[in-house]
Design goal:
The protein has a single domain, classed as TIM Barrel (Alpha-Beta Barrel), CATH 3.20.20.70. It has an 8-stranded parallel β-barrel. It is an alpha/beta fold and 223 residues long. The longest helix has 15 residues. Helix 3 links the parallel strand 4 and strand 5. The protein starts with a strand and ends with a helix. Helices cover 28% and strands 19% of the residues.
Length: 223
Amino acid sequence: MIGKISASMMCSDLVHLKDTIKVFEEERIDYLHIDVMDGEFVPNFGLGVDYIRGLRELTNIPLDLHLMVLNPEYKLQWLGIQNTDIVSIHYESTYQVQRALDWLKPFGCKCFLAINPATPVYVLEEVLDYIDGINLLMVNPGFAGQSIVPSTIKKAEKLNSFLNSQNKNDITVEVDGNITTHNAHLLKGFGASIFVAGSSSVFSGEVTDLRKNIRNLKQAISE
């Protein structure tokens, strides 16, 4: 399976946003990853409704909405979700995970469930029939620039084995957090197919480095 890049817009330079989007379109970036943070589920505030609306006016690149908010099922209607989007809600963010996924389905988007580094793989078992993908957090959510939690590499391998055992190879695995070219190549071997690219890869250096960085990451996830 050819790997896809989801560029983490939390790491982008807003001053050069139009130039960045132009490069992304020319280099055929697959998704724009939007970290929506409420200051409660994670200790930070992230990209909000107005940012999402403005970004949609700049480009037709599909959005990959990562909802790091408490009780996301009550906030879905704020986001203008489109059927080309990926939307990840966190297992840890609601007591009613299955209900939240049910409420997400009518938007026609891809429904992903995100899990934090310390959340065990087995929690996914009862919701596999409700999801299109899993967003495997390789760092604790909330801030860019963190180092990978070492145990998450083994966890990615465990997740791959778990999905195989459940005959759920059609479920997409997205990896998010410190996705260097090295880590991306390693994780692709464990079944990951969407790679959230932030300050460790695509956004490393200056805006002028974007094109080179994208091509390097594409090479790492295509081998």
